[in-house]
Amino acid sequence: MSIADRLRAEIEARRDDLVALTQDLIRTPTLNPPGANYREICDYLDRRLRASGFATELVRATGAPGDSDRYPRWNIVARKSGARAGPCVHFNSHIDVVEAGYGWTVDPFGGLLREGRIYGRGACDMKGGLAASIVAAEAFIAVLPDFAGAIEISGTADEESGGFGGVAYLAERGWFDPARVQHVIIPEPLNKDRICLGHRGVWWAEIETKGEIAHGSMPFLGDCAVRHMGAVIAEMEARLFPALAQKRTEMPVVPEGARQSTLNINSIHGGAPEPPEDDTGLPSPCVPDRCRMVIDRRFLIEEDIAEVEAEIRELLETLREGRPGFDYDIREMHRVLPTMTRRDAPVVGAVARAVRAVFDREAEYVVSPGTYDQKHIDRIGRLKNCIAYGPGILDLAHKPDEWVGVEDMMQSATVMSLALHDLLTEGTRP
Question: N or C: which end of the chain has fewer CB within 10 A?
């Protein structure tokens, strides 16, 4: 029996274990915000990986955004060294999940197995990918215990809110230095036969329009900041949105609609604050003197970040010059540059060969519409040999009744194990 067949058989023998592991991970509700149960899931992974022969380390991102004694930002990094020197392959998965939201027909933290699918918040994004990478690594070690190099598995915090308490914190401290890690696979749910090379850029900003408070029965004595914000939106509709629709990229971004530049109005707040749900009173009649809007601008590798920012500032300056009483402030909240790993990078080739072996077809190369933790591995860690590959359908992420297919996880785990064989056996391939 060939090594490839032995790896396939070893993973098939672990099917029930993969299901149980995924269910256990889902049943630990690592909600972000606020950042709940991070230590609990890290302790669970610690027990599991130490039992498989990994050396583990729990790392708290002390002082990172969101870290507190009530909600500490815990991460786990586990390492299994081979019989001789060689490169390190690192599987990185985030442990946090978004809120469940409304519309579920099953328990979002029950880990229900039904008709070949495991349901729950984080099932595809990305606890199914984390479980698949663990089983892939354990199966590979069982079949080839004398491999060269090292395998690392990490579970990291806060990817859903920027990753600053997780991968960014670790990268700043050298965990992803190219001298200690050479290949990174992030099992995000981009479909089992796709290799995700990178992501678009993002620029978040808060715009505040200014006015003057007055009695609501005499609005002419004040200046309504919400109306000024309405003018901002009207200018965006008339000028900016059509211009962004004309900007196209050669990046293989999916879905098709994301191959252009986009802008999302994330939130608007103006006037009196929202009352508590149990408040039955009426609001006071005031002209709002402040209105704030958060914008989420996604941009392409062909665009320059300075131009992205200038587009918004020029729009606001045009309004200041032409609209009576208009004034504003703008504050940058977050920026991430686009990134895209080369198709001839070693980790890309290894996973592509494994996809071909499992599915008997060529891998599809894609780029994510949104960012994920590759941004920190690239920018802070200076490690370019990084991709996302994992089970699950991206469209299901953050949705009610999120699920991951058992067979998809099995096949992805097989791909991961074959990629390990490719990268950690001195150049031989399955």
Answer: N
Total-model pTM: 0.90
Q: With bands split at pLDDT 50, 70 and 90, how would you rate the model's confidence at 426?
A: low
Could you give the 3-state DSSP secondary structure of residue 291? strand
**What gap in Å lies between CA 198 and CA 6, rounded to an integer?**
32
pLDDT average, residue stretch 112-129: 98
Dihedral angle sign, alpha carbons of residues 186, 187, 188, 191: positive
Q: For 322-356, how does the pLDDT look when each residue is reduced to its tens digit (9 = 90+)? A: 999 999 999 999 999 999 999 999 999 999 999 99
Residue 92: CA count within 13 A, CB half-sphere: 30
- Beta pairing partners, 88: 150
- 246 residue type, one letter: Q
CATH 3.40.50.720 for domain 3-199+338-424, yes or no, is no
**Structure-token match 């199914």, residue found:** 128
Would you state the CATH architecture of domain 201-274+281-336? 2-Layer Sandwich (3.30)
Where in 238-313 does DSSP place strands (E)?
A: 262-270, 290-299
Neighbouring-strand partners of residue 339 = 199
Look up tokens 């930002």; give the residue.
73
